[in-house]
Specification:
Length: 488
């Protein structure tokens, strides 16, 4: 007990003097994942709930707000808290309980998707929803209610969370599930860290019978074919994702390729214990057995302009078309986390970084709206450099981005010259999205304005969320740059 007290005191002293003065040694410059915005914050890396509580007291004493940060993979300012306190949650990363028979797992919030799948796969389980990078944490994923390439079928990650513990700024810990404190359950998931801190998350995982997926790739000659393909295959595919050549024009507008994948049923893999072994999941560190993947971004950089990317896109599309439809078996990790195998690929965008604009649009209006969006970007001389097309379904979470429709994730390079032009373009795109009944996604956002958030969420939803925040965080201790930009 004495020992415990002593280490707690030491940890408090490390954080600040008793006057609540924050020590400058904690001041760090923190960047949005896309690198287009960064800010200085007092960063702390707690490992226990006691420390979390101490830090909340410290914040109150020092008159600063607290922002939460998981893996820092949100493209914009969702995990930044300029000139205030930022809690990096990655050291709270213990697996608390695991039942390999039922597939139920209880995790601390800093456990990453990478840590999770590597822990459970050899027992025959896989996370039911994963993001395009495995560097995300469970806390960050729950706070944004992330989706995967199976969003149309599995829904967002919140649909697989059984319960979580949420620490409020008062230090009180609340257990939330669909039965207990259900209003908080449906608001904190997707509540971008504004209602409390997830200190544990319990999830149901997905049973798998192989370490491999059956994957099929095909090109699509235009946007209409892309939509038709998705509509034809969603009922028969466990995952589908499309890539669009945003430079294609005229009758080829929206051309691209599609990857779809299915789990292998029981018995389809003759050596599942081998394919599920971790060493058989990863891609080799070298491309073509020669070039280290870690330097690929250096070769990509000269092509990160309109001419270079249009040439790459054309070559990628034509190679896919000439090669024809392909069928292959691919490890789960290689299928889901391809981008992780090109370390630092975002550096190819240059020092200004990138932002992503990802609208979600109902299926009835998405065909016309996506065509308008692609054409508008071209007219403004700013086709985006990476465009990903996904199908989604609605869900029950208060601040959801999900709907029965499609999303188009578009990466825009930011330079001094382009920054204002991209912001102006985003305003024009917002008009198209709102007119089509669309929604936006905080994890990817850098440009949303309060009036646009109000238009798509509705005043009633915003009022409900703010009332819940007032009840759980009466002193408005939990804040981020995103919260201040869009909601205050
Ligand atoms: C290459 C790449 C691919 C991606 N692919 C996808 C994709 O396929 N699907 C998708 O949905 N998203 C995707 N994303 C976005 C990413 O999944 C989300 O931004 C996710 O929230 C990031 O998790 P994180 O741990 O990095 O959280 P951060 O970005 O650090 O934080 C996200 C939010 O969570 C809050 N938060 C963090 N920890 C806690 C906690 N313990 N309690 C309460 N709140 C907390 C933060 O305040 C912040 O609001 C991708 C991002 C990248 C960079």
């Amino acid at each position: 007990m004495i020992e415990e007290q002593t280490s707690k005191d030491i940890s408090q002293n490390r954080h600040a003097s008793s006057s609540g003065q924050l020590s400058l040694e904690h001041l760090e410059v923190v960047s949005a994942w896309g690198g287009a915005s960064r800010s200085a914050s007092y960063v702390f890396r707690p490992t226990t709930e006691d420390q979390l509580h101490d830090l909340m007291l410290l914040a109150a004493k020092s008159g600063r707000s607290i922002g939460l940060r998981g893996g820092g993979n949100s493209y914009g300012d969702a995990a930044l808290n300029s000139e205030n306190i930022l809690l990096d949650m990655r050291r709270m990363n213990r697996i608390l309980e695991w039942n390999p028979v039922s597939g139920v797992i209880k995790l601390e919030p800093g456990v990453t998707i990478s840590q999770l799948w590597q822990y459970v796969l050899e027992d025959g389980w896989w996370p039911p929803v994963v993001t395009g990078t495995s560097m995300t944490t469970i806390g960050g994923c729950a706070a944004m209610n992330v989706h995967g390439k199976n969003a149309y079928q599995a829904g967002p990650i919140g649909d697989h969370i059984l319960e979580f513990e949420l620490m409020l700024p008062s230090g009180e810990s609340i257990l939330c599930s669909r039965e207990e404190n259900s209003d908080l359950f449906f608001a904190a998931i997707g509540g971008f860290g504004m209602l409390g801190i997830f200190t544990s998350v319990t999830m149901q995982l997905k049973r798998v019978y192989s370490g491999l997926l059956d994957v099929q790739t095909e090109t699509q000659p235009d946007l209409a074919s892309m939509f038709d393909y998705f509509e034809a295959y969603v009922d028969y595919s466990d995952y589908i994702v499309g890539w669009i050549d945003s430079f294609s024009k005229g009758s080829a507008l929206g051309r691209g390729d599609v990857h779809r994948a299915n789990y292998l049923g029981s018995g389809a893999d003759l050596a599942p214990s081998q394919t599920m072994r971790l060493e058989n999941q990863h891609l080799t560190p070298n491309m073509f057995n020669v070039m280290p993947r870690s330097i690929i971004w250096i070769f990509m950089r000269p092509f990160m302009n309109n001419l270079g990317t249009s040439l790459i896109n054309m070559a990628k599309y034509q190679a896919g078309r000439l090669g024809g439809s392909k069928q292959l078996r691919q490890p789960h990790a290689a299928f889901h986390f391809l981008l992780d195998y090109v370390p630092d690929w975002k550096n190819s965008y240059g020092p200004g970084g990138l932002i992503q604009y990802q609208p979600f649009i109902p299926k009835e209006t998405a065909r016309d709206a996506f065509a308008d969006i692609l054409r508008l970007c071209q007219r403004r001389g700013m086709p985006n450099y990476l465009t990903v097309f996904k199908r989604h379904r609605p869900d029950d979470f208060l601040m959801t981005h999900g709907l029965d429709g499609y999303s188009l994730a578009m990466d825009f390079r930011i330079t001094d010259e382009r920054r204002r032009r991209v912001a102006a373009l985003a305003r024009e795109l917002d008009e198209i999205v709102l007119a089509a009944g669309g929604r936006f996604y905080f994890a990817k956002d850098s440009t949303l304005r309060p009036e646009v958030a109000q238009a798509y969420l509705g005043q009633e939803t915003i009022d409900q969320f703010k009332a819940m925040k007032k009840r759980n965080d009466p002193d408005n201790l939990l804040q981020t740059d995103l919260w201040r930009r869009v909601f205050t």
